[in-house]
């Protein structure tokens, strides 16, 4: 029970850290979590956490890097392969050499091999920590992709360098040729292992789907287990488990191009599930770091043979040395190719170089590496200055986080999107639509090409409408407010007319009830009470749990669906009644809008009249070829579901990055709720 209580406390601490960050947003979440971790370590608990570095890597690093690999921009990663390798390999090994000799010169009690081990532990950067900083980082896209690619690759090179340094320290034997060959074998072997295991997994999934096992819960469980299995198998084969899960994650990104209905549902559930997993793991990494700090500091503070102020001085000096080496490497990496006119990253920019240098925050891999240093050497003697090395590594993690938290927000210029100007709002709205179109365009297949083009045309139409908007912010806000009130009035008109038709016997009760469900959903969307991102995930989860917890109800639902399929004429008759009801309501709405139209409100009412006409035209087209359009409509619905989820994620990311205000984010979500109701309103009707 002690460990169970401890886990609950850790999870509660993650929740508290995010609540605290809302009140002090200028302090990064990792720093808050480290501080709370220190408090947890000081609590009089019956259970004391002893960190196992190997377990730490497989439990935290493997799924985090697998998820990063899935989300990475594959094209950008390939285009920037040379700069990424220069940072992930070149900078890591330069850091090991320079910092290793520097530490050995500054602290002679730390042998050269042990100094190299410390430098190797400090070499990898932590993208998780950078992404969690509260400062708004405004880097060009290519530099952002460069940092993401570096974070994916440098963990492996840093860990391999660390392992060789530790082996040299423990055995007293080191061969540069042997180390180089082993590094190539471990790195290439890890990539091949990840690709082969992922290929086997895809074949296995294809086989179980051929057996009719389409359950999303089962497939989601397999996906969660994937990074752990791949990492453990790779390590058993003595190749890089880190690179294996990265390669597997990137290969999984290609799977999203197969947009059949099953894959669409799995992607929606996967995004929600992985967001929770990554949220918890990111928090636990820094809380665990905080729980380890008191013991680490206490040992060094009491008896390390070095004064406490010297330890602080060493930590600061090593931290600034790491930043300085990174700055020089990055600046030269831009300058030299620029002089040779072959630089993909553009002209060297001092501000961008400084931001990129400060973004090299150390974190989870550094901690895991330092704590895995053995207690004794091969001859049985204690590992020299082990506690001091771990303390310095922990201090550098803290210092890099503090420096980045303090300086990055100052250096990061405020984008036009952070202002409340109408031009900035217009730019952000266009950016959201453009991102959705680009993402859908990357995932077009032969099966969904026609449906995807239709959805993309819808978004292009929205972009054209946004570009035609009046720049006068006050006038536009007044028009939006009046249109919003009028949309609510339209819903009320439709409800009144539905009730009138039902009373007159011109509409069946079943059709009226279903159409009223659609109107209720529309009213919720207009009132800002539509589905949030978490609400949408919750809806999917509830459906899955209902299938598991209430199999009898699920069976009855299946029987009703089967009965409906056996009576297609009855079903089509009901759909026809609903369509007739909707057409009658649309005509009433159009008449009422025309009656309200005058010279002073044309800007408010004409867009709604045109929107109403498009709905009527669409219904006439659907009435002419219902059966022939069924397959196309299902494909379009799948793509629309994907587009809505992409748009929701883009809005959330822009808000978290500080590029849009809370009010604009709320407005965009409210508009999205409205579009979502238009897209899937037919589900409510059917």
TrEMBL record:
Superkingdom of this protein's organism: Bacteria
Protein's membrane topology: Multi-pass membrane protein
Tagged with keyword GTP-binding: no
Protein name: Na+/H+ antiporter
Chief location: membrane
Keyword field: Antiport, Cell membrane, Ion transport, Membrane, Sodium, Sodium transport, Transmembrane, Transmembrane helix, Transport
Positions of the Cation/H+ exchanger transmembrane domain: 12-413
Function comment: Na(+)/H(+) antiporter that extrudes sodium in exchange for external protons.
Family: Belongs to the monovalent cation:proton antiporter 1 (CPA1) transporter (TC 2.A.36) family.
Residue ranges of the TM segments: 6-24, 53-70, 82-103, 109-135, 156-177, 183-204, 266-289, 309-329, 350-375, 387-411
NCBIfam families: a_cpa1 (TIGR00831)
Gene3D superfamilies linked to this entry: 6.10.140.1330
Record's subcellular location: Cell membrane
């Amino acid at each position: 029970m002690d460990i169970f209580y401890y886990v609950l406390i850790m999870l509660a601490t993650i929740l508290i850290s995010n609540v605290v960050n809302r009140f002090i947003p200028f302090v990064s979440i990792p720093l808050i979590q480290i501080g709370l971790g220190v408090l947890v370590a000081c609590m009089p608990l019956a259970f004391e956490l002893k960190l196992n570095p190997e377990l730490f890597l497989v439990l935290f690093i493997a799924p985090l890097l697998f998820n990063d690999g899935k989300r990475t921009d594959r094209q950008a990663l390939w285009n920037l392969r040379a700069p990424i390798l220069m940072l992930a390999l070149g900078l890591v090994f330069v850091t090991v050499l320079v910092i290793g000799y520097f530490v050995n010169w500054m602290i002679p009690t730390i042998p050269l091999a042990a100094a190299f081990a410390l430098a190797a532990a400090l070499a990898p950067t932590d993208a998780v920590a950078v992404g969690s900083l509260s400062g708004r980082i405004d880097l060009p896209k290519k530099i952002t992709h460069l940092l993401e690619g570096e974070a994916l690759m440098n963990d492996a090179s840093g860990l391999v360098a660390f392992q060789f340094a530790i082996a040299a320290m423990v055995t007293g034997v080191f061969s540069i040729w042997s180390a180089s060959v082993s590094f190539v074998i471990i790195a290439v072997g890890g990539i091949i292992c990840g690709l082969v295991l992922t290929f086997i997994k895809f074949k296995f999934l294809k086989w179980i789907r051929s057996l009719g096992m389409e359950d999303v819960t089962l497939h989601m469980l397999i996906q969660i287990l994937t990074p752990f299995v791949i990492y453990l198998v790779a390590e058993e084969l003595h190749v890089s488990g880190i690179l294996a899960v990265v390669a597997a994650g990137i290969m999984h990104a290609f799977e999203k191009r197969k947009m059949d209905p099953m894959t669409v549902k799995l992607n929606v559930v996967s995004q929600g599930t992985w967001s929770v997993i990554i949220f918890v793991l990111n928090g636990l990494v820094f809380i665990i770091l905080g729980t380890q700090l008191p013991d680490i500091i206490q040992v060094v503070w009491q008896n390390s043979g070095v004064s406490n102020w010297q330890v602080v001085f060493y930590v600061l000096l090593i931290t600034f040395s790491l930043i300085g080496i990174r700055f020089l490497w990055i600046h030269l990496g831009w300058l030299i190719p620029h002089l040779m006119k072959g630089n993909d990253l553009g002209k060297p920019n001092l501000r961008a170089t400084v931001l990129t240098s400060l973004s090299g925050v150390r974190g989870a891999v550094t901690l895991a590496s330092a704590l895995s240093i053995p207690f004794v050497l091969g001859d049985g003697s204690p590992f020299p200055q082990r506690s001091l090395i771990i303390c310095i590594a922990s201090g550098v993690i803290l210092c890099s986080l503090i420096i980045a938290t303090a300086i990055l927000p100052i250096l990061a210029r405020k984008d036009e999107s952070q202002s409340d100007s109408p031009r900035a709002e217009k730019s952000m709205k266009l950016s959201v639509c453009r991102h959705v179109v680009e993402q859908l365009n990357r995932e077009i297949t032969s099966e969904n090409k026609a449906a995807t083009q239709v959805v993309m045309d819808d978004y292009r139409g929205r972009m054209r409408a946004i570009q035609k908007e009046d720049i006068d912010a006050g006038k536009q806000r007044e028009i939006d407010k009046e249109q919003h009130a009028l949309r609510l009035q339209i819903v009320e008109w439709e409800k009144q007319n539905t009730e009138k038709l039902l009373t007159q016997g011109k509409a069946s009760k079943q059709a009226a009830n279903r159409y009223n469900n659609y109107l209720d959903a529309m009213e919720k969307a207009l009132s800002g009470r539509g589905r949030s991102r978490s609400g949408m995930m919750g809806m999917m989860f509830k459906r899955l749990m209902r299938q598991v917890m209430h199999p009898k109800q699920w069976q009855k639902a299946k029987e009703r669906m089967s009965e409906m399929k056996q009576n297609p004429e009855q079903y089509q008759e009901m759909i026809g009644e609903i369509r007739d009801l909707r057409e009658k309501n649309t005509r009433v709405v159009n008449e009422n809008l025309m009656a309200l139209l005058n010279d002073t409100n044309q800007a408010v009412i004409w867009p709604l009249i045109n929107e109403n006409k498009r709905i009527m035209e669409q219904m006439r087209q659907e009435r002419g070829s219902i059966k022939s359009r069924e397959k196309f409509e299902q494909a379009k619905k799948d793509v629309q579901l994907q587009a809505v989820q992409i748009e929701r994620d883009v809005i959330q990311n822009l808000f978290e990055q500080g590029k849009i205000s809370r009010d604009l984010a709320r407005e965009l979500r409210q508009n999205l709720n409205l579009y979502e109701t238009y897209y899937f309103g037919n589900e409510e009707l059917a």
